Amino acid sequence: MQRRRFLKAGAAVWLLGACAVDDDGREAADAGDAVGGGGETKSGSISQPLGSIVTRWGLDRFSLGSYSYLAVGSSSADRVSLAASVDDRLYFAGEAASVEYPATVHGAILSGRETADEITSTHGSDVEVVIIGAGAAGLAAGERLQAHGASVTIVEGRGRIGGRVHTDTSLGVPVELGAGWIHGDDGNPLTDLAERFGVERLVSDTENIKIYDAEGEEVDTGALEEVQDALSSIADGFDGDNTDLGEIIDDALEDLDGTDLRLARYVIATVVEHDEATDYGTLSTETFEVGEEFDGDDVVVPTGYIDLLSPLADDLDIVLDTAVTYVGYGDRDVVVEFEDGGSMDADVVIVTVPLGVLKAGSIEFEPALPGDKSDAIERLGMGVLDRIVLSYDKVFWDDDAVLIGHVAEEPGYFVEWQNLSAATGQPIISGFNAGSVAARIEALSDEEATAAATSVLETIYGQ
User: Fold this and answer.
1) Domain residue limits, the chain
2) Confidence (pTM)
């Protein structure tokens, strides 16, 4: 999901300016103005979806989450510790190991390339490498190593490449279930890949947003001055002494109630919790003090995000459906053992599995990982951001909006939707949930989760 840096760019300002207000402080709109999709006035009930896809990244054994975040008590130094090699035999790469661009696909790619360069600098080009994981970091590392002349084998537990980049076509068109945007296309390595491989891109104006309240009415922004003041006070709480962002936000929300509180929680959910894939109370304040961003537009890939990565795999030796359970490393070589009983030897190994898999201890390391690395893995957080994708026979929502906001009664509950009709050419919409809300939705059946998502759309666009 879009990673906007909260407070760095005055995140609440665009919400205050989203609708014009009249002298009474209420939204200025004629009685006959449309509030439903496609310029039509809301009437009747919405149709049932023709198809749906429910993601459960938190339960996926090969990811156990969507992307990493700085939890309370952690810092960017933990990412440095995670990325550090061990005895010049054991290397780590991925978005969680990126200090400059954490929790992004481009961060994973850059991490993989940097690790590949470190290996060839240390061992030369005549080196045999096993890479665990065929996601963005693993593919980028593999391509770079092979270009240097190294012998590379990538071992992947899934039956596909891409990892948390997953383009699904079960609804008849490419739909993203994982990463969905190139965040800032100016100088981004993903832009370089798109140009290199001739991949089509479409600008996604994520500031083009419609926002509805819990009753399905467009948001009245007249009462948001207090909300803006309260959220702005969060920045004043960054005094260097308190590393718990949750306490600072709680203080900022203390005097709000009713509509003001729901609006404030909406902003926090969409701008903080969806960007970090976790509840705000789990975050360190350093979350907003580190990391870099590329300039330019946010763009999507209509033909499928996987088109940016799959060409990297063309000349690589990739073994699918092979989960790694053990890595032994010594002074001279490494041994990698698989769930099916097989094994493989090499000079060095690169571990690119997601942080969630490392936190779960799914891979045994012998000797055990050094204390600074294991402590970093424990301190860093792994968040969850899930999608529920729904296809219909026609677009009944705001077809000119890129994002649709829902100021839910329950904080964080289906508060953000992505209109996929422009990117796919089909009536498809995708709802997001993060953190504890996502975990609760993951526990539902596909039918129950789809019904929950449909109910929200019914509230906004039904009778």
Assistant:
1) 11-57+171-175+182-190+201-299+384-461, 67-165+309-383
2) 0.89
